[in-house]
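Q: What residues go here?
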């Protein structure tokens, strides 16, 4: 399959490399020049479950590529998605599927501005990867990818994409309710990421904070109230139990700092808060739902961005 990776960060480099290794024709695009230069100089350097590997590869700015592809996987951060889609407009043919595996909410509306609905595939992944610097990536866990078309017309191609990703060694399944999975994952990110970033702690320490369950449960309730207006039914108790479980010994990664903490506190990069608690806060106002915890969390995370990054 001809594949374009639109955003060669931790996740884009991982999916693209796995697809390339098994013979797919993969092109890597990015907007960060230092990263493009590093990949062109020494390939994609991976720390793959602790073992170093180098994959020969070239990376390009979107304007340098003119051939379209069967599949474009967008893998920017949420706030870079619109810019990337605008930059790859010339690569979107009638037959090109665009798969979005970004965390967060509201991406379907952004994709629809550029891509026909029958060509949009949405997904969720629990693979974990990080970027150690330009051209250097680390994969720490090969978790499942769920994928679904957003209109019935896209189903056959979604199944083909699931098969292609599976054949590359990345466990992948066809989802019958991707919106549910997207919202459920957003609840995990909207609790773990936001709270650990504000409290500057890992998940184990979050679990020890007084009223932790009440705090996480209220955030989940707010997500659930907005999700319901958008046709998605979440079970508040089940998701609250799940997010609380992430703070316990039973979760192997309990000492992990979520990606928002890594981005903002460790690397002073902007966060995806507007696509998590910020989305719930914005939509809550539109639907007349009280989302005061998400409102406050969004204000505080932006405040922390302003203090640390200065914009
Ligand atoms: P990433 O930050 O590694 O890369 C995203 C983009 O940001 C790339 O284009 C990259 O080149 C650019 N970038 C990275 N550092 C930069 C810097 N210092 N200056 C300028 N540009 C920089 O993001 P990711 O981890 O690949 O995440 C992509 C999407 O996938 C996000 O929506 C994320 O929430 C989601 N996701 C990530 C993981 C994970 O484990 N990393 C897991 C599931 C979902």
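A:
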């Amino acid at each position: 399959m001809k594949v374009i990776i639109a955003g060669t960060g931790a996740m884009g480099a991982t999916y693209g490399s796995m697809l390339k290794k098994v013979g797919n024709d993969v092109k890597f695009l990015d907007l960060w020049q230092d990263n493009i230069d590093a990949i062109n100089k020494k390939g994609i350097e991976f720390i793959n479950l602790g073992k170093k590997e180098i994959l020969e590869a070239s990376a390009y700015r979107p304007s340098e590529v003119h051939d379209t592809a069967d599949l474009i996987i967008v893998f920017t951060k949420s706030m870079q998605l619109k810019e990337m889609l605008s930059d790859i407009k010339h690569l979107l043919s009638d037959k090109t599927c665009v798969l979005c595996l970004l965390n967060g909410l509201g991406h379907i509306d952004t994709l629809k501005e550029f891509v026909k609905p029958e060509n949009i595939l949405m997904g969720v992944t629990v693979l974990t990867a990080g970027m150690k610097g330009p051209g250097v990536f680390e994969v720490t866990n090969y978790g499942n990818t769920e994928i679904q078309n957003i209109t019935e017309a896209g189903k056959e191609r979604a199944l083909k994409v699931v098969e292609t990703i599976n054949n590359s060694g990345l466990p992948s399944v066809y989802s019958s309710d991707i919106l549910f999975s997207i919202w459920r994952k957003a609840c995990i990110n909207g609790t773990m990421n936001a709270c650990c970033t504000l409290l500057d702690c890992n998940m184990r320490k979050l679990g020890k904070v007084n009223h932790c369950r009440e705090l996480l449960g209220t955030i989940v309730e707010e997500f659930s109230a907005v999700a319901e207006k958008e046709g998605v039914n979440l079970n508040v108790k089940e998701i609250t139990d799940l997010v609380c479980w992430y703070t316990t010994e039973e979760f192997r990664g309990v000492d992990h700092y979520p990606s928002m903490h890594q981005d903002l506190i460790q690397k002073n990069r902007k966060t995806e808060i507007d696509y998590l608690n910020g989305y719930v806060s914005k939509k809550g106002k539109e639907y007349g739902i009280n989302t005061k915890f998400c409102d406050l969390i969004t204000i505080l995370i932006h405040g922390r961005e302003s203090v640390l990054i200065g914009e």
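A: Context that may help when evaluating the design: The longest strand covers residues 120-125. The radius of gyration is 19 Å.
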